[in-house]
Amino acid sequence: MNLEQLLEKTKNVRLVAASKYVNADIIKEFYYKGISEFGENQVKALSEKKELLKDENLMIKWHFIGTLQSNKINLLIKQRPILWQSCNSLNLAKAVDKRLDYTLDTLLEINSAFEGSKSGIEPSRALEEYLQIKEECKNLNLQGVMCIGTHSDDEKAIQKSFETTYQIYEKLQKHDAKICSMGMSSDFELALKCGSNMLRLGSILFKSP
């Protein structure tokens, strides 16, 4: 799939380029190809790439999509990302909230794959914890949910994890949830079928001819 086909296929959703494995020059190149939202997994990498591109007058919208370590909270806040996609607990939400001096748009990460290797809140607790964060963390503006699909060759298992997340998102829409961030390079088409309105694409995007 070339870049033009990929952009056409994803034209009705927000596309976040997961730029973990590419440098600032590649980010700049893809910005001029029409992609303005980029997501980084590590706060240090986000900081470094943002710094390298600061004089380019690019209107890049940075997302943080990785697991946030408590010792990197201050550095993340300094970057002012447009969206923190990976809030994975009430405790972490409170730790970030109390240090913020601005409003940070945030997604609740849900471990709908039930995999120990993934972070995120268990689906059974997601609704309650979302509303608790919304109530107690006034500097976090919860915008919806995020998940990583099941790591499996079984398409039905992946689909189930997306459907679980989407069902939670549906329940949260009456609480102003607007974003359901699901789908990466290997499973984004399935995520779209399950209702995703934000994709995080890395390898398929940067390897597109």
From TrEMBL:
Gene3D superfamilies: Alanine racemase (3.20.20.10). Its cofactor is pyridoxal 5'-phosphate. It comes from the Bacteria. GO terms for molecular function: pyridoxal phosphate binding. Residues 2-207 form the Alanine racemase N-terminal domain. InterPro entries: Ala_racemase_N (IPR001608), PLP-binding_barrel (IPR029066), PyrdxlP_homeostasis (IPR011078). Keywords: Pyridoxal phosphate. It holds the Pfam family Ala_racemase_N. SUPFAM superfamilies: PLP-binding barrel. Belongs to the pyridoxal phosphate-binding protein YggS/PROSC family. Pyridoxal 5'-phosphate (PLP)-binding protein, which is involved in PLP homeostasis. PANTHER family: PROLINE SYNTHETASE CO-TRANSCRIBED BACTERIAL HOMOLOG PROTEIN, PYRIDOXAL PHOSPHATE HOMEOSTASIS PROTEIN. NCBIfam families: YggS family pyridoxal phosphate-dependent enzyme (TIGR00044). This is Pyridoxal phosphate homeostasis protein.
